[in-house]
Specification:
Length: 208
């Protein structure tokens, strides 16, 4: 919809559940339909793409909103499972997760584990490749990493506490520690944002 007041010209998508009027919510002028909303269509099913099998371990994430956003990104990349380690809140115990997950918490398999280090060691013994996302002295830039090939053993992406980062025990156990290049004044990104970037790169970057 678009406002017909030349001094306003507010343009916004009309959500009938939130706003049912025919007048601009900013200036009160008449609204007209500007465009028909796009039909997003059916997305590709990432589970059938033949790419890297990816799971993730959330190591002591405190914010339920961050966990919800990670569920949303995990669903987007077709992640096979989320492991919620330590104090990371679970959807069944923290309703705020649904605010940012928007239903993805019901679509992505997950499991809570009290000790992330024990889980990671068990998964590594099963043949998983462990990739920690952390700015550490031995970190390798994320975009220089390529999965060796698709259809091999699963990969576990590990992200850590918003304040403390990834547990040093997990960093020692990881096959690789990856980091995101930072060109601004801050040394890191929000954990959910960083997770989304890394998960999409690992799932959809061309393999070696």
């Amino acid at each position: 919809m678009q406002c017909q007041n030349p001094a306003c010209q507010l343009r916004f998508p009309l959500d009938l559940e939130q706003y049912q009027g025919s007048f601009c919510p900013l200036c009160g002028a008449q609204l007209i339909r500007a465009e028909k909303a796009l039909d997003p269509g059916a997305p590709e099913n990432p589970h059938s793409s033949g790419r890297l099998v990816l799971e993730a371990l959330l190591d002591n994430i405190r914010s339920a909103l961050n966990v919800g956003a990670i569920f949303r990104a995990a669903d987007g990349v077709g992640l096979r499972k989320l492991w919620l380690g330590g104090i990371t809140p679970a959807p069944t115990r923290q309703a705020q997760i649904a605010k940012t997950a928007l239903g993805a918490e019901q679509a992505v398999p997950w499991e809570s584990v009290p000790n992330a280090l024990t889980l990671a060691a068990d998964l590594k013994a099963q043949g998983y490749t462990l990739l920690a996302l952390e700015n550490a002295p031995n970190s390798r830039p994320l975009f220089s990493y390529r999965p060796e090939s698709s259809g091999q053993n699963p990969t576990l992406l590990i992200v850590g506490s918003e304040q403390a980062g990834v547990d040093p025990g997990l960093l020692a156990l990881a096959n690789e520690t990856l980091c995101l290049p930072m060109s601004g004044s801050k040394g890191s990104l929000n954990v959910a944002v960083a997770f989304g970037i890394a998960a999409y790169w690992l799932r959809f970057a061309p393999p070696l």
